[in-house]
Amino acid sequence: MAKQDYYKLLDLPRSATEADIKKAYRRLAMKYHPDRNPDDPESEHKFKEAKEAYEVLCDAQKRAVYDQFGHAGLEGGRGGGFSAGEAFGDIFGEMFGDIFSGGQRGRSQVFRGADLRYELELDLEQAVFGTETKIQIPSLAECTTCKGSGAAKGSSPKTCDTCHGQGQVRVQQSIFTIQQPCPRCKGRGKIISNPCDTCFGQGRVRQEKTLPVTVPAGVDTGDRIRLNGEGEAGRNGGPAGDLYVEVRVREHAIFEREGSHLSCEVPISFTTAALGGSVEVPTLNGEVILKIPTETQSGRVFRVREKGVRPVRGGAAGDLFCRVVIETPVSLDAEQKELLRQFEASLQQGSHKPREQTFFDGVKKFFTGAID
User: Fold this and answer.
1) What is d(CA 322, CA 319) in angstroms, rounded to the nearest whole number?
2) Please, which residues have CB within 8 angstroms of residue 365's CB and are 6 or more apart in sequence?
3) Which helix (H) or strand (E) holds 189?
4) Residue 166 domain-assigned?
5) How many Å apart are CA 83 and CA 94, to the nearest integer?
6) Alpha-carbon span 145 to 77, nearest angstrom
7) Is residue 243 part of a domain?
8) CA distance 104 to 101
9) DSSP per position, 110-129
10) How many distinct helices (H) and strands (E) make up the chain?
């Protein structure tokens, strides 16, 4: 199945800013997240599509490649996709570098380590107020035994006799001379005849490391925290990649979040709705008193200002929206039921049920008009 255009998938113009992309992704992530749509393969597929589009369009290098070459630019070129942190410039340089450099590369190529991504789940309170946590990630680190050379102790790599240490060889194709990685040394420029027993000549070893992460207050699902140099180790002396910690906020038992605003349902009794009163409403900063006016109808929304979330990038705190829901009494005894029947009978005289009266008047007009 052909992939959908990332911009159309997020309902964005090609000129969209990073903030626009994040906002669109958060909207789709909240709508299609598997936690909200259990056992729904279609929602899970849409969630994965949105996540893939977000990861490409929020990466400046990948977005530039996608804008120029589309999906093919991200998938093809060398028999596989781009690695997590591999820049398009590195690939372009490997294939065509000698055409523009005049063959003046005098050393083997240096590769930056791949970027890594880690999904960090947070409770709503942790996201709103910020937190300190530690994460464990698998990574490729420089081998401490051989110091990244790949050679065993007491030995050292030898210059490749095919590319003479350049890591590149020239290939004649028609009228062009194309430079590509040396097939013998794999672009290193050196041959390891006695490989290190720890890394087996790779110069890097896989290990798990523990990293502290400072989560700023106000983050939301889709926000990323970058840890510079905490990605995979580079090759041939190249710099390490970065680690991107992507935030996902768990669903809350009481509150729903929409940007900087929070919302919740507040159950009230029939008596409080009819006669008015006050109820205690929880917020993330403690309880507040919500005044209920007389004749309040179920579903009415009250705004409690500045009891929402203060955005991570600054600005005023959002609001808390409380939707009142009238709770129907349960487990009534015979006397209570009789009292309710008497009360219901007393309401038949007068206009005590404006919404009910309006509804049934509309029903009568509908059927009268349909008969005519």
Assistant:
1) 10
2) none
3) none
4) no
5) 15
6) 35
7) no
8) 6
9) -BPPPPEEEEEEE-HHHHHH
10) 10, 15
Mean pLDDT of the region 272-276: 93
Domain boundary among 54, 82, 110: 82
- Read off the pLDDT band of 365 (50, 70, 90): low
**Cα of 55 vs its chain's centroid, Å:** 8
Token digits of residue 173: 């194709």
Q: 82, 105 in Cβ contact below 8 A?
A: no
Q: What angle do CA 4, 51, 82 make, to 5 degrees?
A: 80
- Is beta strand 261-269 parallel, antiparallel or unpaired with respect to 320-327? parallel
pLDDT bucket at 361, cuts 50 / 70 / 90: low
Domain with 39 in it: 1-82
Q: Is the dihedral of CA 287, 266, 262, 34 positive or negative?
A: positive
Look at 333 and 191; give whichever has higher pLDDT. Answer: 333
Whether the per-residue pLDDT at 17 is higher than 70: the answer is yes
Least confident residue range of 224-233, 302-311, 320-329: 224-233
pLDDT band at residue 302 under the 50/70/90 scheme: very high
* 8-state DSSP, 213: E
What residue has token string 């029939």?
270
